[in-house]
Amino acid sequence: MGDTRLEPVVLSDVERLTLENWAKRRSTAQGLAVRARIVLACANGWNNTVVAARLDVGRDTVRRWRTRFLRDRLDGLTDEPRPGVPRTITDAQVEEVVVRTLEETPPAGTHWSKRELAKVVGISPASVLRIWHAFGLQPWRTETFKISPDPFLIDKIRDVVGLYLAPPANAVVFAVDEKPQIQALQRTAPVLPMIPGVPERRSFDYVRHGTVDLFAALNTATGKVITKLSAQHRAVDFRDFLDEIDRQTEPGLAVHVICDNLSAHKAPVVHKWLLAHPRFRLHFTPTYSSWINQVERWFAELERRCLARGVFCSLDDLKTALEEWIKVWNDQAKPFTWTKTADQILDRICRYCDRISEPVH
Fold first, then answer.
1. Are 257 and 245 in contact (CB under 8 A)?
2. What b/e string do you get for 249-266 counting C-beta neighbours within 10 Å, with b at 16 or more?
3. How far apart are CA 139 and CA 106, in angstroms?
4. Has residue 352 got a pLDDT over 50?
5. What is the pLDDT of residues 119-171, one digit of tens each?
């Protein structure tokens, strides 16, 4: 075969696709991922020394897997059979672990622990954990979900996503919502600053100095926000916020406002205001679908970077902190990038409904 350190590695389309998939693997397949990356690097025409330096592995390692790939192609990258202790866990035991995890619960319990299940099946807790990992089972985890019952779900998703991906000409699109009851919390003891090896520490108890509501309208094209602080979030407060949006929006532009189904957004006082301002049009998200409103992503940033670790000795301190943070945001604003089409969102909802509608559920 000659000197494999210099022999070029040429990949077919199937081999390249397979190696790229292997290269993305983690955890138990990490060894195979490294081998795939080595071969992909060799296919770029690099010699063993360059590949070793770029991937932070030894040159002997590069030489070994280049040689095995050139000799056996993809089969050469998998582990060869090794001598060892005979397998002690049977297929029946593996099946029992999986079936019990999916279809049963322990007596007086809500989910299996590895020790409880190991005792029932007759294997070690470590073996149960390996089986769970192999089948992607995580009985200790739980998540919440809510599928919108909105009869106009499809139409509303297409409407809102269409505004994100293809906004109308001569128009501005605002994602609008309220963040109610923002609390001015003062810790009962001074915050202890971070030091090497110790994170910042705060007392768990606090004194509350009142609350404030925040109206926000996110310009989906620029990322800038128009905001208004209010003591409440009634229909008249929402109407006043629409006035603020109207004042700060260039005349002559149509204004599309994306908002949720809060009763204040549909009150008669709001309808009357909209009739007097025909350039405004409200677009409602599906019920229980706040995730589709981009301003919620902005509220998450506000919570993480301003409120969650803030200490406010008065309501005025809270308002000042909010106004300063919003000003900084607008000075360096960037829009959030929406990538999913309406069809992709609806397809994913359909796939999830199919999964949870199977007989096991």
1. yes
2. beeeeebbbbbbeeebbe
3. 12
4. yes
5. 999 999 999 999 999 999 999 999 888 888 889 999 999 999 999 999 999 99
Contacts of 326 (CB under 8 A, 6+ apart): 225, 227
Q: Given pLDDT bands bounded at 50, 70 and 90, which one contains residue 29?
A: low
**Farthest-apart Cα atoms in the chain, separation:** 85
Asked if 301 and 171 count as a contact pair (C-beta separation under 8 A), the reply is no
Average pLDDT over every residue of 213-241: 92
Name the helix (H) or strand (E) containing 185. Answer: strand 171-187
- The CA distance from 219 to 239, in Å, is 18
Q: Report the alpha-carbon distance of residue 295 to residue 283 in Å, rounded.
A: 14
**Residue that has been written with the tokens 């260039």 in this structure:** 250
Q: Which two tokens stand for residue 196?
A: 């090497």
Return the pLDDT at 82.
Answer: 67
* Spatial separation of the C-alpha atoms in residues 64 and 82, rounded to whole Å: 18
**pLDDT class for 26, splitting at 50, 70, 90?**
low
CA pair distance 175, 186, nearest whole angstrom: 31
Q: Inform me whether the pLDDT recorded for 83 exceeds 80.
A: no
Give the gyration radius of the chain's Cα atoms: 29
| Residue pair 62/38 in contact by the 8 Å Cβ criterion | yes
Cα gap 164→297, rounded to integer Å: 14
Give the pLDDT of residue 5.
52
**Residue 326, both tokens:** 């919003």
Report the pLDDT value the prediction gives residue 2, as an integer from 0 to 100.
43
- For the chain, first and last CA: distance in Å? 57
Residues 114, 125 contacting (CB under 8 angstroms): yes
The DSSP string of 265-294 is GGSHHHHHHHHH-TTEEEEEPPTT-GGG-T
CB 254 within 8 A of CB 170: yes
Counting every residue written for the chain, the total comes to 361
Instruction: Retrieve residue 282's tokens.
Output: 């409200």
